[in-house]
Amino acid sequence: MIDRVLLAVNSFANSGNALQYMQRLQGSISEVIVLTVIDNTFALSRTGLRSDSDECNEYPAAQREEALAEAQLTLVTQALKQMGFQVKSLLAAGTPIEVIPEQMKLFNCDLLIISHRHLSSLGRLLNTSVTRNLLDDIGQPVLVIPR
Question: Which of 35, 46, 79, 94 has the most other CB atoms within 10 Å of its CB?
Answer without folding.
Answer: 35
